Amino acid sequence: MSSDEVREGVSLTHLDQPLFADAGATKRDLVDYLDAVSGRLLPVLRDRPLSVVRVLRGQDAFMQKNLPKYTPEWVPRVKLWAESSKREVSYALCNDRPTLLWFGNQRAIEYHPTLTHADVAAGPTHLILDLDPPEGAPFSVAVAGARLCRQALADAGLSGALKTSGSKGVHVFVPLAPGQAHEDVAAATRAVAARAERLDPALATTAFIREDRHGKVFLDSTRAGGATVVAAYSPRVRPGLTVSFPIPWSAADDVTPREFTVHTAPALLGDTDPWTAEMPTPQVLPDDLVAEGHTIPIARVAAMHEGKRRARARRQADE
Fold it and tell me: What angle do CA 28, 34, 36 make, to 5 degrees?
């Protein structure tokens, strides 16, 4: 079998090369997987500014936001101002199979779309909670944290879909009706996390500083605004080349993230698209949830100030 071929007019090269240590997969395996799930992955990526994680041969993984100069002209793109780097960034819009195959040939393994479409003014399309279990804890602990979020959402009249992160944790996605302000969605995310924490403070925490979590599931409410989240069906740079995979709430206790890899996922999916099937209809955030969230400090900002306070205290103690 040749290590080079052409699909959809896209030249694919060096397909027999391993992707990275512990991947257990070649570049061909990656491209074949992306091609097999393109009908499900492309709708998740369509019209969303895209960042990817690439692993070039013999190098460490890195995240790429700005398209390189050698990108073919036919790759859709959008230019947006990046406040963090104070520059205009040319993001890809992965809207079609040739673009996805081109990314695969670039050894782009992870696909991280924004929470908005290219028309940023339309507002976020989802409220997202990212749950990270404590070191060494089984996956079931992350699922238990997700169930707290599900209950907090239900108490607010909302519902969401669940997927593995492709690593150790899970993501809860709540689809939103268009036109809701970025700052209101961010506030509501903080409020849901806080309400979930109150349901079982022995299990879950919203503490952004790691040393303050004390072995609890971290309910990360910071996936808002200009943040990205790894897409459903995206591979991850993890041993075995796992993928972020949708799981029904009813089956969440019966799976582990390592079950879902580029080798196993296509057969598990068959002709189905569980991410679409499990996703509720878009919802409007309740006013009281938004109002509560606006009273909760932004976790990253609060953690930054607290870190500085603790550093000052340590310096004073050493004097």
Answer: 100
